[in-house]
From TrEMBL:
SUPFAM superfamilies: NAD(P)-binding Rossmann-fold domains. It comes from Plantactinospora solaniradicis. Belongs to the short-chain dehydrogenases/reductases (SDR) family. SMART domains: PKS_KR. The lineage of its organism: Bacteria, Bacillati, Actinomycetota, Actinomycetes, Micromonosporales. The keyword Signal does not apply. Its EC number is 1.1.1.-. This is SDR family NAD(P)-dependent oxidoreductase.
Length: 246
């Protein structure tokens, strides 16, 4: 049956990369999984088909994490269609790159809307659906602990906000048996940051293990936090970065 049998999860930004790997790992562990996507409907539907092939229910929801109404609606739609909500994984993200001089107000507002406001509002909508054993897991970044090269200040700042939110919500929700944690991935072999991409050689120089992560390795930590092994883990940040911040 799997450790997550009978559970329902929502993974934002679950159509590809780390998000898709998380959605599939949760399904393998027995959960029914909803996922949101912005534009890649065909990819989202492919993940849903893979979830169904594992014998679980899957649901793809078009939702822009920068849109407050869309994220709230996605949560409520998940709970309505799949009957409940036990696990929320805040994975949707953007990657602004450039110096502070190059950064526009629109860049700033959009990044914070997705990484901070969107996460906060998604959790706010999800918590009323959760009971004892609920799990909130956000996907941060290795740049929270170390920023070894220029151009990622806005990204690092926005992901750093998740640490404070995680610690605060762990206190707010602990009495209800809901855990809240953040996972900080390092360089991961995805379409957005391929292991053979232009920046790969530079990034490998900072990684103690000397290789990129596979998306499944990030997903394994998320699934552990979502399952029975995560019952007593809350308010913490876990790095899965191959020693990037060592």
């Amino acid at each position: 049956m799997g450790p997550l049998a009978g559970k329902v999860a929502l993974v934002t930004g679950g159509s590809r990369g780390i998000g898709a790997a998380i959605a599939l790992h949760l399904a393998r562990d027995g959960a029914d999984v909803a996922l949101t996507y912005l534009r890649a409907e065909h990819r989202a539907e492919r993940v849903v088909r893979e979830i169904a092939a594992l014998g679980r229910r899957g649901l793809a929801i078009a939702a822009d994490s920068a849109d407050p109404e869309a994220v709230t609606s996605a949560v409520d739609h998940t709970a309505t269609k799949l009957g409940r909500l036990d696990i929320l994984v805040n994975n949707a993200g953007v990657f602004p790159y450039g110096s502070i001089e190059e950064t526009t107000v629109q860049d700033l507002d959009h990044t914070l809307a997705v990484h901070v406001r969107g996460v906060y509002l998604t959790i706010k909508a999800a918590v009323p659906h959760m009971g004892e054993g609920g799990r909130v897991i956000s996907i941060g970044s290795c740049f929270v602990e170390r920023v070894p090269y220029p151009g990622v200040s806005l990204y690092a700042m926005s992901k750093s906000a998740l640490g404070g939110l995680t610690r605060g919500l762990a206190r707010d929700l602990g009495g209800r048996g809901i855990t809240v944690n953040v996972v900080h991935p390092g360089s991961t072999d995805t379409e957005m940051n391929p292991a053979d991409g232009e920046t790969a050689e530079t990034e490998l120089g900072f990684i103690a293990l000397g290789r990129y992560a596979e998306p499944a390795e990030i997903a394994a930590t998320v699934s552990h936090l979502a399952g029975p092994g995560g019952r007593y883990i809350t308010g913490t940040s876990i790095s899965v970065d191959g020693g990037f911040a060592a």
